């Protein structure tokens, strides 16, 4: 139904718009017919042929002089869609035509079909008209050439336009645009200028085609050859779409602006000119579009390569950090694990002597030191085991209330806090964060334990836990008024087995390294702020805030 109405409209368009001296310059119906068969396929051929025949009959009823409503007219009109259907089948099945026209070879096949298919339909139709007596032998050749070139121009004008339109509407792809309209060095493509360029071509037509004598001699009149310039120009600016727009402007403008009568011989020259103009523009436009598509693909590949290279560099840096950490781990682990063993071995020897001499008090002291060394070794092994597990989550990442988590961490360290009489202040209404609850609890417990450990000697120890606004993330801080940290060691303290203040007890040097690895596993950051020794420390870490919270 829709195709029949469009086909009927194309018949009227050929008669009333692209019509010179009683003959149509080109036939939009030919381009519409081939495009429909290429898009829908040969399986829809019966419906398309029936709709076209119905449109021809209706046109013949409205215009009896055409003879379309007669049986012979219907038979003659039926020959053309059958030939076009076979041509579309051959193009899609045997030459692997991509109707999206992304390659130059696809446009070349459309141009080839535009030359061959109309010739076959012109011969069949004109012979049929000659057979039924509606065409004389003297006018056969002239009518055949006009029919052939008119349909060829119709295919060149309309079929690429409809196929590109189909690509935009259905396939959802985008025509790459050249970079010729922006400032020098501007990488953005030229967009939104097609209508302006189309208007410029029409102004060019008015200036050139209205000059006196432009129809008198096609071969020697330079005005005709000037028409190639704007077509090639718009093809380079906008690719295949630009070439289609330019050809439509010049071809339709040539028919519409021409009010002078055209002699029969000159009419064919005009048709041939428009045909070669369309061929040139479409082939140039398809070459430009193919080059732009290739350029765009290369740009995407380069971007992907840059991203891959950046990822590899990040992985290499991470690997170097891990290797350095592994070296420190190997050295420090061997040293720290060996130290309790040396202690145990030494005091076992002393215990043996004390047993031999019966020194009971010294035996108790020896056993206490051995027990302390074994406890330290056990604690170190536990923390190393925990550090090795950080790479995988214990629980799935969920929304976690920091209020509940801080309360639980303070409860776990309640004895140490009470022992040093530390004042604790927690900000109200801490945010909800996203992560592994057990791992985040480890972070808070380690930071609170660290604060308690390094404020034990202060006369008025204080601990403050709060949050800062970090935009899309929450920044949580744990502040104390302990010994503080020298600016030189703000990064070093997060390394494995780093103990900057051994006089503050026998820490393992694993706690802050564990904190850093957990926070980085959650995609956050951890750092320390301190004005120096004697001014306390503020440990900060960032976590992702759920969308509902932010």
Pattern of helices and strands: HEEHHHHHHHHHHEHHEEHEEHEE
The rounded Rg comes to 43 Å
Biggest sheet details: 5 strands, mixed
Q: Which band does the percent of strand residues land in? A: 5-15%
Query: Separation of termini?
Result: 54 Å
How many domains comprise the coordinates? 2
The overall average pLDDT, rounded, is 76
Oligomer: single chain
Strand line-up across the major sheet: 4-6-7-9-8
Number of strands: 9
The helix/strand class is alpha+beta
Low-confidence segments, ≥5 residues, pLDDT <50?
15-22, 172-191, 259-264
Helix amount: 55-70%
The coarse silhouette is rod-shaped
Count of helices? Answer: 15
Structure write-up:
The chain has helices at 2-16, 28-40, 45-62, 71-94, 104-131, 137-171, 194-209, 222-226, 228-257, 264-357, 360-388, 402-412, 414-419, 437-453, 511-521, and strands at 19-20, 23-24, 398-401, 423-426, 432-435, 462-470, 473-480, 526-529, 537-544. The chain starts with a helix and ends in a 6-residue tail after the last strand. Helices cover 64% and strands 8% of the residues. It has two domains: 2-178 and 189-307, no CATH class; 394-550, Histidine kinase-like ATPase, C-terminal domain (Heat Shock Protein 90, 2-Layer Sandwich). It is built from 15 helices and nine strands. The strands form three sheets. Strands 4-6-7-9-8 form a five-stranded mixed β-sheet. The chain is rod-shaped. The longest helix has 94 residues, at 264-357. Helix 2 crosses helix 6.
Keywords:
Heat Shock Protein 90; 550 residues; alpha+beta; 2 domains; 15 helices
Set out the fold topology.
Blueprint (H helix, E strand, L loop, with lengths): L1 H15 L2 E2 L2 E2 L3 H13 L4 H18 L8 H24 L9 H28 L5 H35 L22 H16 L12 H5 L1 H30 L6 H94 L2 H29 L9 E4 H11 L1 H6 L3 E4 L5 E4 L1 H17 L8 E9 L2 E8 L30 H11 L4 E4 L7 E8 L6
Parallel strand pairs: 4-6
Antiparallel strand pairs: 1-2, 3-5, 6-7, 7-9, 8-9
């Amino acid at each position: 139904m829709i195709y029949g109405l469009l086909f009927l409209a194309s018949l009227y368009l050929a008669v009333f718009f692209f019509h010179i001296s009683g003959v149509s310059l080109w036939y939009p119906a030919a381009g519409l017919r081939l495009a429909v068969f290429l898009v829908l396929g040969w399986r829809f051929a019966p419906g398309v042929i029936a709709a076209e025949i119905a449109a021809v009959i209706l046109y013949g009823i409205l215009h009896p002089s055409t003879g379309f409503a007669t049986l012979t007219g219907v038979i003659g009109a039926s020959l053309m869609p059958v030939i076009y259907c076979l041509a579309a089948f051959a193009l899609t099945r045997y030459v692997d035509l991509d109707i999206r026209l992304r390659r130059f070879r696809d446009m070349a096949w459309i141009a080839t079909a535009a030359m061959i298919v109309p010739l076959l339909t012109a011969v069949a139709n004109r012979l049929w008209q000659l057979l039924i007596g509606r065409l004389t032998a003297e006018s056969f050749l002239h009518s055949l050439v006009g029919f052939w070139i008119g349909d060829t121009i119709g295919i060149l004008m309309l079929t690429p336009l409809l196929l590109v339109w189909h690509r935009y509407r259905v396939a959802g792809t985008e025509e790459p645009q050249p970079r010729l309209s922006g400032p020098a060095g501007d990488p953005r493509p030229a967009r939104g200028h097609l209508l302006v360029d189309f208007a410029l071509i029409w102004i060019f037509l008015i200036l050139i085609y209205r000059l006196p004598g432009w129809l008198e001699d096609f071969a020697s009149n330079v005005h005709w050859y000037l028409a190639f310039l704007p077509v090639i120009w718009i093809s380079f600016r906008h690719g295949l779409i630009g070439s289609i727009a330019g050809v439509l402007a010049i071809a339709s403008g040539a028919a519409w602006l021409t009010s002078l009568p055209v002699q029969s011989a000159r009419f064919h020259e005009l048709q041939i000119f428009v045909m070669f103009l369309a061929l040139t523009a479409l082939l140039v436009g398809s070459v430009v579009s193919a080059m732009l598509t290739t350029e765009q693909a290369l740009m995407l590949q380069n971007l992907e390569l840059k991203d891959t290279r950046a990822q590899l560099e990040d992985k290499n840096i991470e690997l170097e950090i891990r290797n350095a950490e592994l070296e420190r781990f190997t050295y420090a682990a061997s040293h720290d694990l060996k130290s309790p063993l040396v202690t145990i071995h030494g005091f076992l020897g002393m215990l043996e002597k004390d047993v031999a001499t019966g020194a009971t008090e010294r035996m108790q002291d020896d056993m206490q030191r051995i027990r302390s060394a074994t406890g330290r070794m056990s604690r170190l092994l536990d923390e190393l085991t925990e550090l090795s597990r950080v790479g995988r989550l214990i629980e799935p990442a969920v929304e976690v209330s920091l209020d509940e988590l801080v309360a639980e961490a303070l409860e776990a360290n309640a004895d140490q806090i009470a022992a040093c009489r530390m004042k604790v202040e927690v900000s109200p209404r801490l945010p909800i964060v996203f992560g592994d609850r057990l791992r985040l609890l480890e972070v808070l417990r380690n930071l609170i334990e660290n604060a308690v450990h390094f404020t034990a000697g202060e006369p008025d120890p204080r601990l403050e836990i709060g949050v800062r606004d970090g935009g899309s993330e929450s920044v949580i801080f744990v502040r104390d008024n302990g010994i503080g940290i020298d600016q030189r060691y703000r990064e070093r303290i997060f390394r494995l087995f780093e103990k900057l203040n051994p006089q503050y007890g026998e820490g393992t040097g694993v706690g802050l390294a564990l904190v850093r690895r957990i926070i980085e596993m959650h995609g956050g950051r951890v750092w320390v702020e301190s004005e120096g020794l004697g001014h306390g420390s503020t440990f900060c870490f960032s976590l992702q805030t759920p969308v509902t919270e932010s």
